[in-house]
Amino acid sequence: MNFKNFLLALVTSSIWGSSFLMIKYSLEELNPSDIAIYRILIGALFINIFVRAKENIVKADHVKIFIISFFWMALPFYMFGIAEQTITSSLAGLINGSTPIFVAFIAVVFYKLKVTKIQIYIFTGFIGVGLISLSEGVSDISFDIGFLYALIASISYGIAVNMVEPLIKKYDSLIVIKIVIRYALLLSLIMLGSTASFKLPTAEVSLIPMLILGIGGTGIAFLTYYKLLESVGRISSSFIVYMIPIFSIFFGFQFLNEITNSIQFVGMGVILSSAFLYSRT
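^ that's the sequence the OP posted. Answer follows.
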């Protein structure tokens, strides 16, 4: 990976890492349904303005993309919003770091991926997830429902990655993203419209965080990620996933004084090591 691609990876991971902080700020004024809908809406406007490639996807694949939009955006964006009502933005970012483990688990169980070492990495990865759940450390074991919601979001990403891979190989990845986000907007309105307040974000509280989430996390970051994917491939681009929790912890501590305990750091190390070793198989 040359310096240009390394810089691109760093920018992408920092944008996605900051998204958990932006969700936390947005929750001061908006509810999780609002955040999910506005984030997808802003991202859809951005991507559809800047991605002008011709769409030539067959009808049968539109059904697959519709399903992918649920697991890739509509569900996880909402789940992280609910999760951060009760857990820190740092912990949400840590849990998101388990996504590669769920990608591997789903690939082995449902897609019958046969690589002998993967099962070991999945097992150790789940041990890491368990350690991260110890928000109060081993001396005071507790469970927060927000952890479960964030875990559902990470599992959802794992499903989406496995489903979208064949389509990205078949079509231009940017076209797939463009259509995914359109369907995600439709789904989010159907699913969350009844619980959304549709309160307009104010400049004093949530407007800037929502613009960063929509334009940055759902727009620019997706575009730069797939640009990097085309340049260096899946294995090298996985560097982004490993960096996201580091940025989420940094931003959470810097702006919200969130503390991540030593047990959770160990858990994150186990997950990242397992994910890295999986990516090398």
